[in-house]
Amino acid sequence: xxxxxxxxIQLLPNDLHKHCFRCRGSNxxxxxxxxxxxxxxxxxxxxxxxxxxxxxxxxxxxxNESWNGFFCLRKGKLCSLxxxxxxxxxxxxxxxxxxxxxxxLLIPSPFHYGAFTGNPNLMDNESLSEMKDHYQPxxxxxxxxxxxxSIKLIIDTITSKIEFINRQRPDLEDLKKQELHMFSxxxxxxxxxxxxxxxxxxxxxxxxxxxxTTNSYALYSKRFRTIFDYLRKVFWNHLYHYKDKHYRLRCLxxxxxxxxxxxxxxxxYDRLRLHPDVRFSAIKEPHWWTRKxxxxxxxxxxxxxxxPVEDYLDLFDLAAHQIQGVLQSDVTKxxxxxxxxxxxxxxxxxxxxNNAWVFFYDNSxxxxxxxxxxxxxxxxxxxxxxxxxxxxxxxxxxxDYLYFASANKSAEDFHEKVxxxxxxxxxxxxxxxxRACVYNNTLNNxxxxxxxxxxxxxxxxxxxxxxxxxxxxxxxxxxxxxNVKYTMHIVFQFLDLGPISEKQEALITKSPASNTxxxxxxxxxxxxxxxKAILRDFYRPFNTKLAQVLFDDAFLWKKT
Length: 560
Prior knowledge:
The chain is an alpha/beta fold. The chain is 40% helix and 8% strand.
């Protein structure tokens, strides 16, 4: 005979305990019941298998109540469940109402497309963004619609907000307040018989002193240590001795190749340095004006110690040694003539990268930087010459993507990143001026592709606020690629370089192109036609303005 686990009656064939109430009736005696006093307990069998008591649910039924499907739940449990559901409903309703009030609901809008907050670049720079979070766009609407008609609405919104407004040039005294050390090191007068801004600086070290021991370029990069090892060996041979004191010749560049990335600046650099009268910094792209002087090596790594101007000047010591040799030779011969050696610097970030300003210059006007790179360069070198190499901004952006993207590169992925970046840029334009968005560090680091680098005219107009138009040479990569000899002659003329032999010219003009697209990137093919149409629409108003400023319709890039 089998018994119920909690009762002392025999189980019926259908296992229903209709008579269990008798077991617990008035006549029941716990001491006499063999089951209740733990004697002869027979376990419950289900499907001929013994079950552990821990696995058995307690089931009790009452003869005069039926739960109609909830016989396993007590009234108390059911009430608790209903009460919990009510609380959950109230919480959700409160969240929805609060989110709608503050515009935080992630609901796509048919008229506005906002930022994708999960961008990995933004995560890398999270600590930097928190420092100036008030520069972030305020709208957080999200849309995943990336077809041409939908994105065209975004571009139309951006175009309607474009205004090219002249910036106010800062006062020299305000610049000095921002960079006291720089102005204490660089004089306001230079040697008269050198094309470069050069001057003699007293060297207070001795023969056992390493002049480059604290140079940040040597400390942070193994690639440059060989260069500085050589400079250490020849340093004392190039000191100028006068009245028991030692002097070293310091120089700044005569010209700068200021931009843009992926527009042929490396090729121009490689050809120019073959000219017998041209010298460059020991490092092709020091990025000192835009990054290193602020302590930026990579934005995702945060800030390091700021590179002082002395570290930057060290990079021109090789060229300064040669210039000094010519100057001393002229003195020995008893005549003084102009030194024809010119120094160049080719950081392609100089034209456009002002991302660090927001962390150092607080007196901003409506999110626009109060000081730009060109303000400081002009303060020291008002006669500097600037070379800009540009290309079709649509093709530049794709080349930039292929060069810097690390994985999963494809035309489809590029399209996605373009769409995301356009939405972020539109977000900013709804709240801020064009200049504020172009120089917005948070926005620029959040965009998956660098749309802003192709807004050439915005940067050019800002450079023209401090430099004369005749000091800036603007070239097109398309023209350079089709006729290298012609463009190089233009550059030589712009820099007032002397004539060269046919052999030297052939070496310069017939060398293979530098920094071309990698084979694996070429195999990916062109961008999608839809992506190209989107970018054409986006860059069109900026190209139109650029062509007007330069009086050259070739900068419309209609045929590319």
